[in-house]
Amino acid sequence: MAGSNPKQGRLHGRHVFITGASRGIGRAIAIAMAAEGASLTLAATSEAALRETASLCDSGGRSHRVQVLDVSDREACFAAIASAWSEGGAVDALVNSAGVYRSGAFLDYEDRDFRDMLEVNLHGTIHLMQAVLPRMIERGAGGRIVNIASSAGKWASANQSAYNVSKHAVVGLTRCVALEMGAHGICVNAICPGLVETDMMSQGFGRTAQMQGRSLDEVLAPILSRVAMKRVLQPEEIAGLAVFLVGPESSGMTGQSLQIDGGMVYV
Fold first, then answer.
1. Which of 91, 173, 170 minimizes the C-alpha distance to 134?
2. What is the CATH number of domain 15-196+234-260?
3. Left, alpha or beta for 140 (phi > 0: left; psi -120 to 50: alpha)?
4. Of 101, 109, 163, 266, catalytic
5. Are 44 and 72 in contact (CB under 8 A)?
6. pTM for the structure as a whole
7. Which residues pair with 18 in a beta bridge?
8. What's CA 57's distance to the chain center, in Å?
9. What is the CA radius of gyration of the chain?
């Protein structure tokens, strides 16, 4: 991928496909990448929320596509990449930010809880990578994959084993695919956020609080006590790292799972 003109933005001329773009981290990544000159395909299950994201992206004369997509649907993922490639131009980067979270004690989880989180968090990532990578290889111009994993993909934590399993898998997948794609000039990395102020975090830990008969603040307090910065991060802080991983400065980085968690996990 060629370097960019700083006056045009670090991602000028690059087409980025972003899943989970309707809210939270995915939305913040979309806004940050648009500000750096990227043209975007925004994918999620809610068209209305995607159009809101698109309206928040400073287009600067660029058009941003909206793609309604359930990433657990393999056929739909392949069709979405094909459509983005033909209508928006070659996809230079894929950001897999779609995710689901459900808290629960291990013995209380049902089989479908594990299946649901694996279908979206892991298999959705697999589907889209397998859809876009052959096209990137054939094009011969390199490419970038950024998978949004989690600090839960690097350590053990109570009452979220199903989520941790899915995110550990994303970290392992990222490393293996990076090894295979390196010779093609395609960089594959993961971001592992800690506690980030999103609807998913509030709803997920809110469920834990309800199960335990405590407030959300009471549930978060022991977690934040282990965080060096003693605070919850903002989605925009994750977005900056995603821009770096798609931008020219990270051209020699692949197979990495980068922590951005305020100093919670030192792995």
1. 91
2. 3.40.50.720
3. left
4. 163
5. no
6. 0.92
7. 42, 95
8. 18
9. 18
Residue 101 annotated to the active site: no
Length of the chain: 267
Give Cβ neighbours of residue 180 (< 8 Å, ≥ 6 apart): none
> How far, in Å, are 45, 172, 215 from residue 114 at the CA level?
20, 17, 26
- The reported pLDDT for the residue numbered 2 is 47
Tokens 């309707």 belong to which residue? 22
CA-based nearest residue to 235, from 75, 17, 26, 3? 26
pLDDT digits (tens, 9 = 90+) for 80-110: 999 999 999 999 999 999 999 988 889 999 9
Compute the distance between CA of residue 113 and CA of residue 138 in angstroms, rounded to an integer.
Answer: 37
Q: How does pLDDT run across 63-87, given as a tens digit for each residue?
A: 799 999 999 999 999 999 999 999 9
Strands 39-44 and 65-68: parallel
- Long-range Cβ contacts of 54-59 (<8 Å, 24+ apart): 56/27, 56/30, 56/31, 57/30, 57/31, 58/31, 58/34, 59/34
DSSP string, the chain: -----TTT-TTTT-EEEEESTTSHHHHHHHHHHHHTT-EEEEEES-HHHHHHHHHHS--TT---EEEE--TT-HHHHHHHHHHHHHHH----EEEE-------B-GGG--HHHHHHHIIIIIIHHHHHHHHHHHHHHHHTS-EEEEEE--GGGTS--TTBHHHHHHHHHHHHHHHHHHHHHGGGTEEEEEEEE-SB-SHHHHHHHHHHHHHHT--HHHHHHHHHTT-TT-SPBPHHHHHHHHHHHHSGGGTT--S-EEEESSSS---
Closest CA to 253 of 141, 150, 144, 152: 144
Alpha carbon 163 to its chain's center: 14
Query: Do 93 and 146 contact (CB within 8 A), yes or no?
Result: yes
